[in-house]
């Protein structure tokens, strides 16, 4: 396999900087930012102590980061310390922001996240995108992106990049949707259809959801399978804190693992895929309910109310998930399976049959199953935070502001 492990696409976090004097400076700028991000607010002296550089060297780096709008000084540290108090440093609440966007089968969403990880603006538009051509869908998405950029501009923020989550396979160029069966898109380069001037990364929604889990959940394991769902089922594999992509970048297509080889036809061209048993629409059909705008809320409401048909449909969906996950668990031996996306809201009724199936079929001890606290927001947050992480990883590459 060729370069199978990456946190994100080559245009995103994880780039190795060159071993030159300039490359060393860029790495040290990143070390300062990451240290303040992890432990701040901190003085220059505290940063120097943590990363092993002289105070003078750190002061030069800090001054550059302040001029770039990436760090800000909060004023003197708390009183009571010996010696002259230093000025506390924190990541800037103004300056660059990560713009995350999501193209769902039934919605579009955009948000902006600042360097501190705070969501500063968010828009969602509910509508059916299945069967629509990419051009009108991405025109609407561009409109939402521009609204978000205009909103955060009033707060002194500017977009450092755009990351878009899609429910499909994305080529290693991080722009081209190779296949999105539930949208009906094939070999679509999103670059020309989105706003000019913003560094762009496109990725599978489950990949961004798994990265959000890794970055935003302090209790997240380093090795896990991430499963998310709406109309389709997405999967992602994290190994030693890094996303497993596979040779072509298509690893994690759990939704198209057959659980019953002679089952119903799937949009991917196969039969009996997991999506036909555990996707939201499939569960609604099995429960005898008509789909609405909030499918998960409808299922959860009926299940909590004791609806036997809904509970049976969710139990069967959990069984199908357990069957599909068994192969991946046996093959990869992860520390945990994490249910994200819409599945997190249905966990009380999915987990018993899913865990029972996993325990019955896995070769080793039963794999732990946990529920993501991010829920359906995971892919959108992961997309926005991937831009922020790129800034933290290589602050010297960030422009001086403006879209």
Folded structure, characterized:
- There is one protein chain.
- By secondary structure, the chain is of the alpha/beta class.
- It has three domains: 5-91, Winged helix-like DNA-binding domain superfamily/Winged helix DNA-binding domain (Arc Repressor Mutant, subunit A, Orthogonal Bundle); 96-210 and 379-397, ATPase, nucleotide binding domain (Nucleotidyltransferase, domain 5); 218-373, Nucleotidyltransferase, domain 5.
- It has helices at 21-39, 44-51, 55-67, 134-153, 205-216, 275-278, 280-287, 295-304, 308-332, 347-361, 378-393, and strands at residues 5-6, 71-76, 87-91, 95-103, 107-114, 119-126, 157-166, 169-170, 176-180, 185-189, 200-204, 224-229, 233-239, 242-244, 336-339, 368-371.
- The protein has a six-stranded mixed beta sheet, sandwiched between helices. A five-stranded mixed beta sheet has the order 6-5-4-7-11, with helices on both faces.
- Strand 4 (95-103) and strand 5 (107-114) form a beta hairpin.
- Helix 1 (21-39) packs across helix 3 (55-67), helix 2 (44-51) crosses helix 3 and helix 7 (280-287) runs antiparallel to helix 9.
- The relative contact order is 0.14.
- Residues 1-13 have low confidence and may be disordered.
């Amino acid at each position: 396999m060729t370069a199978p492990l990456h946190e994100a696409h080559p245009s995103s976090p994880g780039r190795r900087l060159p071993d030159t004097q300039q490359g060393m400076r860029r790495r040290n700028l990143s070390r300062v930012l990451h240290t303040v991000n992890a432990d701040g607010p901190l003085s220059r002296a505290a940063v120097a102590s943590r990363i092993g550089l002289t105070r003078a060297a750190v002061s030069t780096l800090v001054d550059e980061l302040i001029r770039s709008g990436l760090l800000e000084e909060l004023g003197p540290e708390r009183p009571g310390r010996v010696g002259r108090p230093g000025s506390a440093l924190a990541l800037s609440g103004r300056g660059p922001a990560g713009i995350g966007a999501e193209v769902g089968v039934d919605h579009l969403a955009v948000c902006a996240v600042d360097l501190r990880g705070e969501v500063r603006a968010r828009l969602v538009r509910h509508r059916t995108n299945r069967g629509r051509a990419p051009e009108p869908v991405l025109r609407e998405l561009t409109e939402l992106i521009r609204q978000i950029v205009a909103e955060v501009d009033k707060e002194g923020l500017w977009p450092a990049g755009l990351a878009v989550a899609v429910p499909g396979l994305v080529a290693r160029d991080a722009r081209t949707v190779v296949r999105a069966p539930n949208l009906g898109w094939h070999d679509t380069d999103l670059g020309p259809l989105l706003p000019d001037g913003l560094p762009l990364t496109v990725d599978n929604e489950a990949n961004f959801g798994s990265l959000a889990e890794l970055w935003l959940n302090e209790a997240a394991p380093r090795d896990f399978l991430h499963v998310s769902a709406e109309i389709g089922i997405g999967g992602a594999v994290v190994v030693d804190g890094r996303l497993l992509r596979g040779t072509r970048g298509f690893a994690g297509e759990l939704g198209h693992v057959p659980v019953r080889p002679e089952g119903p036809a799937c949009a991917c061209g196969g039969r009996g895929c997991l999506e036909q048993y555990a996707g939201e629409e499939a569960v609604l059909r099995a429960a005898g309910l008509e789909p609405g705008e909030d499918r998960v809320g409808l299922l959860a409401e009926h299940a909590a109310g004791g609806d036997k048909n809904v509970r049976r449909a969710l139990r069967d969906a959990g069984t199908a998930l357990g069957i599909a996950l068994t192969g991946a668990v046996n093959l990869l031996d992860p520390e945990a399976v994490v249910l994200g996306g819409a599945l997190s809201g249905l966990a009380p009724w999915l987990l018993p049959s899913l865990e029972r199936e996993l325990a019955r079929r896995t070769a080793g001890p039963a794999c732990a199953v946990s529920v993501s606290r991010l829920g359906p927001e995971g892919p959108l947050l992961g997309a926005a935070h991937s831009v922020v992480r790129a800034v933290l990883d290589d602050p010297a590459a960030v422009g001086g502001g403006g879209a």
